Amino acid sequence: MFFDLSWIIDWGLLSVISLYGIGIFLPSVFFRNAHVQNLVAHGAAMAASVAGIVLGVAGLLAPTAATFSVSSNLPLLTFQIRVDPLSSFFVLIISLSGLAASQFAVGYVREFENRHSMAALGGLYNAFLLSMILVVLADNGIFFLIVWEIMSLVSYFLVVTEHEKAETRYAGFFYLIMTHVGTAFIIVAYLVFYQQAGSFSFETFRHPPAPIPEGFRTLIFATALIGFGTKAGIVPLHVWLPYAHPAAPSHVSALMSGVMIKTAIYGLVRVYFDFLGGVFPWWWGFIILTIGAVSALLGVMYALMEHDLKSLLAYHSVENIGIILMGIGSGMIFQSYGLPHLAALGLLAGLYHTINHAMFKGLLFLGAGSLLHATHTRNMEEYGGLIRKMPWTAVFFLIGAVSISALPPSNGFVSEWLTFQSLFLSFQIPDLLLKIILPIGAAMLALTGVLAMACFAKAFGISFLAMPRSAHAREAQEVPWTMRIGMGVMALFCIVLGLAPMGVVPVIDRVTASLTGISIAEKLVSEGGFALAPAPDKGFASISTPVLALLLILLVPAALLMAAVIGGRLRKRFYKTWGCGINLKPRMEYTATGFTQPIKQVFDMIYRPTVKLETEMLEESRYFAKRMRFQTHIEPVFQEYLYDPVVKVLQKLADRVRVIQSGSLHVYLAYIFVTLLVLLLWVR
Amino acid sequence: MGPVSVMIESALITVVQMVVALTASPFIVGLIRKVKARLQCRQGPGWLQPYYDLAKLFRKDVVASTHTSWIFTATPYILFASTLTAVLLVPIFLSKVPLNFAGDAITVVYLLALGTFFLMLAGLDAGSAFGGMGSSREAIVASLTEPAMILSIFAVGLTAGSTNLSTIVHKTALLQGIVTDPPPHLMALAALFIVTLAETGRVPVDNPATHLELTMIHEAMILEYSGRYLALIEWASALKLLLFLTLMSNIFAPWGIATEREPVWMILGVGVWLIKICGLAVLIGVIESMFAKLRLFRVTDFLGLAFILSLLAIIFFYILRG
Question: How many beta-carbon contacts under 8 Å exist across A and B?
Fold first, then answer.
């Protein structure tokens, strides 16, 4: 080979770590000017992201995994790093998103420059990216937990960047607690491994001296699911997402929603398919699939009712994590029935959706950031008509909206289609119940897809179309080039992932082949590299997004030509919209609340809406209203029935414990002494 | 035959299919109107009226709202192109359409959704409350029909072992020309019929003949359109109707469709197909005359029925097969 891959991996890894290191420390140490700090920090992040892309690609191409190890003075801890296809794939996702988000950040954080410490913001941002890279590269339990914790803490600090707002502090606090609950469960899972394997090295997790007993494997399954599930935002552990993701600066939201929650997907795949060797009973996959379907459906349903654009996007992350888990869950079911081809297909669908979601959700969050930058509000009801003020942002947001709605020929369509196929191929499972249940999952996926489309018709239509609904929107201006380029890069990634699935599938196939032992790329890519056809014996079905795109692109001018031939030259007149005889005002436009009202009414079992309508009538006649007050509210079911009781119990317990908390230093010293004594006696 | 001539042949068949669909679709719309008129003891407009309407609309001036953006202008073309692309993936007179590798049943559903998405945006674009109302209602109708549509096609796809429409039609046509597992497939057919009524904006879900603000769905979304834009949208709607009727007739009873690329059989296939979809169109006309439009929030029950039917179809399929 022209380049030596292992050489590239060595240097890629070194330059990623050192460039992020520069980004972390250089701004605060050497520069005083906030703008220079901004440029240095995000410039370093971009350079590191490019290095990360190289590292990811090299790691995916390398025939064998590369490992690095630095021992430490602490017991049990070794800084072990392993570059294998799975981790390389996630390094690639993180770096692609990091590249676009860093470019966007250069323009976006300019308005933070005078209000916040740019050294801190830029440094933390770099630390956040580096910690995510290390999470997916770590090859040692303790090392993993350390970088995992750093990732959580750094993202917490980034969430509370605008800590002068009370709601941001609340969001941060909520996030901090939830993420630590999750980490606790991951620690339990790793401790079980340690107890069975005798070491924290992932290599021994993979090959424990004696097989792990069934009960302990189930314990690992459950704790890893809860632990990583909290970070991923599966229902019902999703409640922190709609608080934390909107509170963070938008380029950080893009990374949190697009990439950070994916580290949890990485963790789940790593534990189930790698550590546990892909050997598990069918009901594990069934649980993952069910959680995925419920998360997808509830995520999109709550997103529909959300009118804060960034919260809406956060709920869509819950939805998309659900779709990813549906792919992975169906793969796990196939794996347990000894159908490795289909297992690889399900896993591939999940991982394809993982990279797609990182790109379009990142793009949409950057778009939302641009709107926030231009209007200083996140409330959709105050937008409107922005397509004329911000034409570039509108186009990029539309690309993201089409992708997340899985409309052909977008990237979201490709991965959702693969997920559909892996659910439909369930007819090969020799179990009647699963054969019936998996198509129900497909129906839920279909419902999710259409509701997402409705939600983004709302998000795009209310925000960008018609007339401005507020002074904020009237005075909005297009965002600077630095931000537009960031969005453009993300949009480009989306388009490439959509139109070149035959190039993407073999790449992801290297990941799934390393986990399931079976390569399906050749079976998947057919028709001379134009179409995808997922089936063990070709011909179940196929799609070709390039051909679809070509047809759509060819038929539009054909329609134009046809119209010209039949109707001659286009004569177009402009006139204001008919408003039933009175001048149309923005207040008469359809609102986001109004748009989703039918959906709220149809699914009122889930939303349990409360409506308060107070009408004050004219004294002369009870048929004419003088004033009306309308309030509507959706019951936050999970907070009310799941979290509040737990919090109440915890508070009660805390009250009890207060008895021993005297506040006197001497008493605490005595406690420590007594504890030490007891421990010594116990150890002896 | 060499591969080049095969490719030319495929391109030719694709173009013919496009022309056939474009030509036949206004006729079906006219046929339904005629049936309704006769059931109301009226003569009704002539058979060629839909063609005259389209030609007239194409020649008329366009009046656009000053509030609209490029979305408003692009939507008719996107809708027309996406619907026509979907039509090219559906077997009409030849069981294996040349473009069958480009998309399956799910692709057809999502291509139609692409058009719906842009229509919903266009409804919001002019800033009129009517358009918004139409888009909002279209959102709920679409979200309830699409799962049922995917499941009902899958119920038939199970027999053929494929979601590829050409494979489904081809295998059924070679076997006995009509669906092989009557109980589940009839349920799926019933589900698809309900979906057809909803997706093409027919009574009892929507009324294509109304412009009353409280009841319209599809017509409300396109209220601001005129001239050639309206012509393209009307033609696309007619194509969509044709597509659904073709799906019902050719998936469930592909009898008479050409299974090989023989000109004689293909011409015969066009004839048989026309008879089948005309029959279905008459049925729709009769239903439109017999039933009243449902209230919007009753529509959900009606569409829920389609979903349950298609789900039952799958369950029955497995239970009967054991």
Answer: 268
* Structure-token match 């005078």, residue found: A114
Please check the confidence at residue B1 and state whether its pLDDT lies above 50: no
Contact B127 A584 (CB under 8 A): yes
Contact call for B124 and A465, based on CB within 8 A: yes
A354, A475: one domain:
yes
Residue B297 is predicted with a pLDDT of: 86
Q: Residue B4 falls within a domain, yes or no?
A: no
Q: Please tell me the number of Cα atoms within 13 Å of B11 on its side-chain side.
A: 7
What total number of domains does chain B contain?
1
pLDDT in tens, B29-76: 999 999 999 999 999 999 999 999 999 999 999 999 998 999 999 999
Residues A325 and A428 in one domain: yes
Q: What is the ipTM of this complex?
A: 0.95
Q: What is the pLDDT of residues A411-461, one digit of tens each?
A: 999 999 999 999 988 888 888 889 888 989 999 999 999 999 999 999 999
Buried b (16+ CB within 10 A) or exposed e, A308-345: bbbbbbbbbbbbbbbbbbbbbbbbbbbbbbebbbbbbb
Interface test with B, best of A423, A590, A604, A605 (most B CBs within 10 A): A590
Using a CB-CB cut-off of 8 Å, the residues of chain A touching B119 are none
Q: Nearest Cα to A275, choosing from A339, A199, A179, A184?
A: A199
Overall domain count for chain A: 3
- Give the best residue of B52, B78, B228, B239 to mutate against chain A (max A CB count within 10 A): B228
Residue B74 covered by a domain: yes
A222, exposed or middle or buried, with CB in 10 Å at 0-12, 13-18, 19+?
A: middle
The position carrying tokens 């499972």 is A429
> Does any CB of chain B come closer than 8 Å to the CB of residue A407?
yes
- Preferred mutation among A448, A553, A555, A578 to probe B, highest tally of B CBs within 10 A: A555
Domain range for A499 is 280-518
Q: Nearest by CB to B318, which of A432, A577, A586? A: A432
Residue A488 counted as domain residue: yes
- What are the pLDDT digits (tens) for A62-73? 888 889 998 888
Q: Count CA atoms closer than 13 A to A218's CA, side-chain side.
A: 7
> Are both A292 and A351 inside the same structural domain?
yes
CB–CB of B161 and A586 under 8 A?
A: no
Burial class of residue A670 in the structure, from the number of CB atoms within 10 Å of its CB (0-12 exposed, 13-18 middle, 19+ buried): exposed
> Which amino acid appears at position A200 of this protein?
F
- Whether residue A407 and residue B113 make contact (CB cut-off 8 A), yes or no, is yes
